[in-house]
Amino acid sequence: MAHSASSITSLPVQYTISTRVFGCTHSPSVEKKFYASCKDLNSPVEKLFLNETAATAALERANIPKAVRSFVSFSSDPTHMKRWEHAANIKFTSVDGVPAVEADFQSLTRDLGACIAIPQLYGQDFLDRNPTLLSDFWTFDNELFPLAIIGVPRWAPIKPVRDGIAAQSRLHLALQEFYHRVAQLEANQPIDFNANLSDISPIPLSRIKTYVAHDWTPKERGQIELGLLWGQNANTQPVLFWLLTYVYSTPGLLPRVRQEITPYLTLDGKGELTALDIASLSRSCPLLKACIYETYRLVNEANSIRYLTSPVPLSSSSSTTTTLPSHTFISALMSLPDHDPTVYTSPETFVPERFLETSADGKLVARYGKLRPWGVGAGMCKGRTFAEKEILAVGAAVMGMWDVGPVGGKWELPERIPGTGVQKPVRDVRVVITRRGV
Ligand code: HEM
What does the entry list as the binding residues for heme (predicted)? Predict the structure, then answer.
């Protein structure tokens, strides 16, 4: 994986996934455009999502405190609920006479994360204008993606494929129409529906130029763009769910994390979160970071797949060298050591302390160690800085303001099954949520 980008590349893999999984129609002309524009399409993503300052600024603009204040809105009327509550099977209840809400925790946290992240890429109007976007996204991710990636054809007469393709087509159309409006903005033309695009990130403004320069048709733009929407959300939001679930359910951990994050959270007299110091949370909260790393270790399934364009020598520990021929696909499952008891003792137990170390100047720091959740080399994740900050900031905000416990009084974490980058729970986790300290 450490060989030069000229002999080892992820592009053929990306192209295959774009056509087989994300539903981009394969043709010689699409293939040519893909290879010609990939670098220019990815470059604005790296500028925003890999840069510390830019990622922090985007999350500050997202106004996480405002969203997290309404994590649950204590309303049984769907018209008054927040968007992320819609799929969470919300039930208004009370604990010892105090208002409480029962909810499906995975759906709630996953959609909260998506509602915070997506506008940072495509603007708020894109989310508001497409009311089925989140349900379509998770239907595509849960149903079609795992089948398509193992080669089940799109014509297969089975419900998950049919439902997944219907959801995927709506996502394609939403993205196609979005880019039509971005093209209108770029050309100083009136924008459809008079939509407000003032808050979109620089990414679509740059990608539209590449789409136009390489003659991507409007339909193809919507299809290929699904890969970016998916990359931004499909792993980040499930990790947020698992992080919160592990911290709330591990005895004695929540008070320690709260103690660490408290200086960087501002709560008003009513216990409402009003501000979040994201830069300091990133810098000064090793235990919270270690909780995130331990969550990656338990649930991430990073896999780096590459194509060899020329022969690559491979040395083994016995000092014999073999040569992998060109036109070979290789796959490195980076998460393989994560569950190995010779690498991590009690690998199935959530122990964040295993990622804590004392630095030379005596400070506690969280270190990745052997963990490789983002893949390796040039094809490594292009959104890792933003993803980790989003998980850290939204996670800290929720923990700072809300108490979460299991319905029935005893945490029973569901089995994890392979997902599409992050493991999924076999069932959702039903929780009861109250304001902190109640
Ligand atoms: C916890 C959240 C995330 C995880 C675990 C994750 C993980 C990964 C992994 C394992 C890869 C493949 C790396 C390889 O082949 O070696 C990847 C690629 C990628 N990720 Fe992420 N990712 C996350 C969030 C994001 C976000 C927020 C974005 C922003 C848009 C993003 C954009 C991308 C892109 C564009 C690629 C393709 C890179 C390339 O092939 O050049 N990811 N990610």
Answer: 381
| 341 CB-near residues (< 8 Å, 6+ apart) | 347
Asked whether residue 312 carries a pLDDT value surpassing 90, the answer given is: no
From the alpha carbon of 233, which atom of ligand 1 is closest?
27
Enter the pTM of the model.
0.96
DSSP letter string over 287-304? HHHHHHHHHHHHHB--EE
Q: Is 322 helix (H, G, I), strand (E, B) or coil?
A: strand
The answer to whether the CB of 231 is under 6 A from ligand 1 is yes
The pair phi, psi for residue 195, each rounded to 5°, is -60, 145
Q: DSSP 3-state assignment of 15?
A: helix
Lowest mean pLDDT among 242-251, 390-399, 411-420: 411-420
Chain position carrying tokens 């992320």: 84
CB of 14 sitting under 6 A from ligand 1: yes
Q: Please say if the pLDDT value at position 344 is more than 70.
A: yes
Distance from residue 232's CA to the centre of ligand 1 (Å)? 8
Binding-site annotation, residues: 381
Q: Which residues are annotated as a binding site for heme?
A: 381
Q: Which of 121, 122, 118 is nearest to 83 (CA)?
A: 118
pLDDT per residue over 347-387, tens digit each? 999 999 999 999 999 999 999 999 999 999 888 999 999 99
Mean residue pLDDT across the chain: 94
| Lowest mean per-residue pLDDT among 108-112, 203-207, 325-329, 352-356 | 325-329
Strand residues in 342-397 grouped as ranges (E): 356-358, 364-366
Q: Is 410 exposed, middle or buried (0-12, 13-18, 19+ CB in 10 A)?
A: exposed
CA of 234 to the centre of ligand 1 (A): 10
Is residue 424 in contact with ligand 1, taking CB distance under 6 Å? Answer: no
Q: Residue 4 pLDDT > 80, yes or no?
A: no
Res 253: pLDDT: 98
Predicted confidence (pLDDT) per residue in 162-200, tens digit: 999 999 999 999 999 999 999 999 999 999 999 999 999
Element (H, E) at 171: helix 159-186
Say yes or no: CB of residue 17 within 6 Å of ligand 1: no
Contact 374, 301 (CB under 8 A): no
| Cα atoms found within 13 Å of the Cα of residue 382, Cβ hemisphere only | 20
b/e per residue, 132-160, with b = 16+ CB within 10 A? ebbebbbbbbbbbbbbbeeebeeeeeeeb
Tell how far the Cα of 10 is from the centroid of ligand 1, in angstroms: 12
Give the DSSP letter of residue 141. Answer: I
